[in-house]
Request: fold
Amino acid sequence: MSVTPSGGQRSRKDLACTAAATAHQRQFVADLKRRVIDNGEPFAIAQADTPHEIFHAMDIPLISNQWWSAYISAKQLSPRYFAVLDKLGYPSNSCRYCSLGLACTLDNDPSTAPWGGLPKPTVLVARLTCECIRHVFGQWAEALGSDFFPLEAPGWTHKDPDWFTKSHEDWEELYEPRRIELLVREMRALIELLETRTGRRFDEDKFTALMHAVNEQEGYIAEAARMIGAARPCPVSIADQMPNTMIPQWHRGSPWAVAHARRFRDEVAERVAGGVAASSNERVRLMWIGAGLWHDPGFYSTLEDRHGAVFVWSMYMPFAGPQYIRNLRDRPMHALASRVCSMNEVLHLPPWMNSWMVSEAKRCGIDAAVVLVPPDNRLSQSGTLLTQRALEEAGIPALRLSADMVDAKEWNHERMVEYVADFLRSKGL
Amino acid sequence: MNSPSTNPVDLVSALIDDPLGAARDAARAGARVIGYYGNDIPVALILAAGALPVRLRAAPRGPTARADLYLESAHSPELRALVEQWFAGELDFIETVIFPRSDDSAQRVYYYLCELQRRGACAGPRPLLYDVAGIGRPVSVDYTRESTRRLARDLGTSEEQLPQALRRVAVREKLMSDLRARCAADSPLPGSWAWAVVRASGCDWRETFDDGARRWLDDATSLPRARRILLAGDLLPDASLHEAIENAGGSVVLELTESAADEDPASSPLLDALADHFHARRTPVRAMREDAHWAVRNARNGRADAVVFWLAEEDESLPWEIARQMRNLATAGIPALALTRQSWKPDHAALGRVGEFVAGRESQP
Reply:
């Protein structure tokens, strides 16, 4: 295991398909850079919880803000860009996760920036899920000389705690017709803007085929999630779960993504059948609640190796089933809207978050949960206390970890590993 | 409880000390009381439902142990205090509380309270969400209209009563407008007094409050020449910052910490017009986002000698706008002080900095 300059450690990966996924992503990044930087193709910057399917269907390259933040963070550039924000007068408690890309653009130093910095995109797109998004994307668009196309994040008053059991079929009632219709109309406006600016056409048939392909892909991931939750010992580490879910997710619906999800499912099945364990001494089954710890992925592996504490569950993989798969009912645009219009809410607001997490913990035989609580980030903090209490009421101890996903400033690998280990010992685990 | 004959100064003081006092007494007398959080709720819908509105206000009073069990650190401290009151049963006389979708912390608290009630962890009023959309597109206008109709249905608003309710709101807004004009005059009313009247006003929607406040306004003594300060940013829970400014020879002549109310009663069809008004309503932070010279423009319009920005630690919006507003104020030669990451109740150090800043300014001739 190697050590990153900030003290974080790289994770160990066991599955053959993980290497294939990361190789594909490397090639994709090279292609994306060639298309966007070298060839000057139109491209978009968008938050993860936006309808990427539209861009995919129109063959418009897309840079996800979260992916770009993780990319910057992985290149150990976060401290530099946070210093840029400080120097420009932004208070130091402003949200970090979504603002690294803006900071990189404001720094305006091609010699340091990944890819020499991003050129002018066709548009920037984000849902207004928290208070900082509109400011960050508005100022980023201004700095890049482009436009920000915001999407509403309306309230949600149909509060069904069992949403995850109904989302495939009953999505219209579950996510509320008025909320779905709002996003459909917004997406139609976005398509019109993209067609006007890029000259590329939105093909409904191609889009529908893509939506079917996404269903197939997410079905494989959901199947793998079910197998991993049921198997003892855990056959696949979090370090393998995340890339095999997230990399195809960035390319969802593409032939590669569908084939890779199938390959991952098959490799998981082989490991389950062969009784292969992710850890040689699994003692405790853990749940990781929150975004990935992108600056120290080795944190998970160290806990596995030293303490037999295996992270069986993180949200990205089990999320694929309930939040992505949709019976299209000949209304693919509405089905897509139902997928997007609550993507963030179910992960961060009660009753959706806590009820799903408790259900998942039970399904996976979880012994304890670790909850990432980024300071100064209301959205990412939201629902964590209610979820912690709900888990504890279900007999599952939960530990809150105050840390940021991309800012390693307050992070210490050894101290945090021991913090979790102490917690597990205190719970007799 | 204050009777209609109470001295207006005492009336305001009582509401500052006990923001729920008037509404609680009205409930005891059989009135239906509906609470609301923030300045972006259509109060006319409550009035037209035959209920007495009360704006929920809280001040830093002490520990919030029960709220702390559920609210994470980045939530607004005022909401934290209100949730504590909710748990303590202090809001039980209120039938419904409306939270605005436009306030991120408030809309999250709405979900928390619904869930806590579902789980039997607390009782209290029925939480409702005013789901106003925030983007300037026709589809967002339509959505807000439907949300407004939905809120009216949930409250039992009578459309027949709505014109009268809008006139009632307009009377109150005229009072507030006159108050702001007196603060902005050459010899201004003390900003701390205006702060108190504005804060108290949402807590008492009875006409007796308007009568008393109007009498007070007629008799109030203006300050002699004072340094004119524009105060922007987050709402303050007490008058200490205003008083620090006054003690240093200044006065807040323009306070921009909330959306400005529309002084024109809506036209027909009333519900849609009301919805359109709230959809288009500009909070200061929204105005800052749309105009990097917002502070400069307002400072000039208010003939301010200086600008003070007050930002609470938990604010996630203003930190993104403050930098460029400060840069443009500096370019325009307008002195400005930005107090960021502040505790809810202004501390001694912050009050000292404000005092020094104001004392060091010169009044415009």
